[in-house]
Amino acid sequence: MPYWIASEYSYVQHGRDLRLDFLRGLVMIVVICVHLEYLSLLSVFMWERLGMISSAEGFVALSGVVLGIVNKKRLIKEGFQAAALKLVRRAGQLYIVNIIMVLSILLFMHIPSIDMNSITHWVSPAGGPSHPLFPAEGSPWQQTLRQLLLLEIGPHQFRVIGLYAFLIAWAPFVLYLLDKHYTAQLLALSWGAYIINMWIEIRITNAGFEYAFPVLTWQMLFYNGIILGFHYEKVFVFCADHLHKHWIYLAVFFSTLFMLFALANPEPVFWPWATWQVFTPLAYKKIYMTWFYKSSLGIGRIINNVLFYTTLFAFINWHWQHCYRWFGWLLIPIGQASLYVFIWHVYLVLFWNNTPLPGYHNFWLNTLIHILSIGLIWTMVKKEFLFALVPR
Fold first, then answer.
1. Which residue blocks in the chain are alpha helix, DSSP H?
2. Which of 87, 137, 326, 335 could form an SS bridge with 24, CB 3.0 to 4.6 Å?
3. Average pLDDT, the chain
4. Please, how many CA atoms are within 13 Å of residue 140, restricted to the half-sphere of its CB?
5. Nearest by Cα to 219 from 24, 358, 67, 44
6. Mean per-residue pLDDT for 248-254?
């Protein structure tokens, strides 16, 4: 056991780092509660209440970290060609999953008794116009087929998986550069694309995910995650070592400042209590759009995410025994089956929105819905429900 494992529980199980599975499970819990857009005891702390962070950044970055760790091992054991081929196959699998997801929604749309609006349209929880995400009824089938194959249509709750598929398809190139020790050049390419797209906002595809997750912007999180995972021994040891705890305390301090800024939002979503009256709505919006806007990944948002996840990882590491004992049973299985959870949670959204139960202001009923949804997903994972058909 490495010297930096400070508890009686090993972090490693079957070659997996359980701390990362724990973090991914936490992210997936947030995904479920945020996409079931009801005010509850859980969701009230998830709509940018802990800082300018969301589950999307965590999912993309952590997926990259895991990919970097796994494929470094594959490079050593099987060589570049085998590792690259598995990445391409994974990208193909994710593409097919996107196609099947959209096809299933198109089939449901032909059942008159089902209200599909929560899946087929995007409406800001803060209010605003509804934006259709699927072709209008009566559209030519050729048009629908083209949009389907190009991932131009699909539920907004699932669009990050389209981005995931696209980025993994290019991951063999990233792996090649890392294998040839071109880490600095790769960092320059990734950050260069991010900075350029900050100013000119290029969308390199017409896929639906580009509107929420522009490839040239969000690649930075994913590919930097791969780089971090590829060099995880040094990075994780640094974060886990108590000798560096002063850096962690500094991260905690600035994360707290970001949280206070988030709590000063004059128009928060799903926040029933009064906020700090520090900024006018216009001033806050200007700061937010310049430094923290989610789609364009403002630099302030990136810094906030780095500080937050560094703090969270250090906390989990230092208190692993308690984290594992109290929450590991829930979060680790969900984190290890994150794609499976992502797929099923879309149908949960559809299910709950076709019952008379949810009410945006029925706080405790909505809390029960969120808890039941998490419990159902966890049970399905533990029972390996349809694991032979649904990818993980």
1. 18-35, 55-78, 80-108, 117-120, 141-149, 159-169, 171-179, 183-200, 209-212, 215-230, 232-240, 245-263, 281-287, 299-318, 320-323, 329-336, 338-352, 363-382
2. 335
3. 91
4. 3
5. 67
6. 92
**Are 161 and 259 a contacting pair, CB within 8 Å?**
no
Distance of CA 17 to the CA centre of its chain: 18
And the tokens for 85?
């081929």
Structure tokens at 267: 């128009």
What's the start-to-end Cα distance of the chain, in Å?
A: 28
Cα–Cα distance, 35 to 13 (Å, whole number): 31
Indicate the pLDDT class of residue 360, thresholds 50, 70 and 90: low
Q: What's the number of CA atoms in the CB half-sphere (13 Å) around residue 341?
A: 30
**pTM assigned to the model:** 0.92
Query: Are 239 and 310 a contacting pair, CB within 8 Å?
Result: yes
